[in-house]
Amino acid sequence: MHDLPTGTVTFMFTDIEGSTRLLQHLGRDGFVRELNRHAEIVRTAVTEHGGVEIRTEGDAFFVVFSSTEAAVRAAVAAQRGLAAHPWKDGSAIRIRIGLHTGEGELGGDDYVGIDVHRAARIASSGHGGQIVLSEATRSLLAGRCPVGVAVRDLGPHRLKDFDDEQPLHDLVIEGLEHDFPPLSTAGGRHTNLPPQRTSFIGRGSAIVEISVLLDEARLVTLTGPGAQGRPDWRSRSRRRASIGTTRSASWT
Question: What is the DSSP letter of 198?
């Protein structure tokens, strides 16, 4: 076991979405084979970004990072690695990842304290392919996202066993799925209406593009009428750039 970081740390929890269905589909031997490959991909991402694996339980990982930025990069690398892997027999493994930054309090060779439980609840609220962040993690990330990644605000949510609502966010990763059902939180509405998958339908690539522009300029101006369909402004964003540090983009 590595020396466990203390002080302000970022906890990462992961687990496989639909593991029971996969087991039934693949059978025991096939499931174990794919489970091990999934573990290799996640461990590679964690190790390359300085994370410390605390434990695994079945198909779930509990990892800690001393750097918030490293935790985010590891989570993105894990999702990209899983998405790129050629899974057999239609058995693509999708994991949900939760990140929360808080106090790393040790109890023996493990972490204790409310922040560990909060991180676990954040992870369980997400969906396969999704990375959910707490407000604490988002604020410490402070715009230092990997290239092609943007933070999306999901609004306030109440996690299971927690009384307070808190803002949650997820990551929009260029080239990967980014339209997910609403988070599975205690305050979620249960109706017979179809789920609202996202408030930015078809805007995932636009969100990433905007985040890139914001890294290049202090001000980005979006122009054009709303609710007119998909954006068509990537090439024009450069042509319409005004003098100085202001960038413009037109939406149609």
Answer: -
d(CA 65, CA 48): 12
Among the listed residues 57, 91, 65, 79, the one whose alpha carbon sits nearest the alpha carbon of residue 126:
79
Kindly report whether the global pTM for this prediction surpasses the value 0.85: no
Other beta carbons within 10 Å of 189: 8
pLDDT tens digits, residue range 27-60? 899 899 999 999 999 999 999 999 999 999 889 9
Q: What tokens appear for 228 in the block?
A: 């007119």
Distance CA 126, CA 98 (A): 7
| Residue carrying structure tokens 């693509």 | 92
Alpha-helix residue ranges (DSSP H) falling in 114-172:
114-125, 135-141
Distance, in Å, from the CA atom of 111 to the CA atom of 85, rounded to the nearest integer, reads 32
* The two three-digit tokens of residue 109, written as one number: 């060779």
Rounded (5°) CA angle 177-179-182: 135
Q: Compute the CA torsion angle 80, 81, 85, 87 (nearest 10 deg).
A: -90
Q: Whole-angstrom Cα distance, residue 198 to residue 232?
A: 20
CA angle 88, 93, 95 (to 5 degrees): 170
- Type and span of the H or E element at 97: strand 95-107
Handedness of CA 116, 12, 102, 8 (dihedral sign): positive
Residue 175 Cα distances to 50, 129, 147, 149, angstroms? 25, 12, 12, 10
